[in-house]
């Protein structure tokens, strides 16, 4: 299995993570207000993710 591509989306309701693999949506996690909790949920659901680059919050 390849590593999924993760997209972090910031909405009024909170943070969401969308995981895709070769244009197929694997799943969505959210809304979660805390970025660390979101990343913990991502690692639990998709343990083959080694590294995640997050956008800077401004």
UniProtKB/TrEMBL annotation:
Domain of life assignment: Bacteria
* Protein name per the record: Uncharacterized protein
- Gene source species: Methylopila jiangsuensis
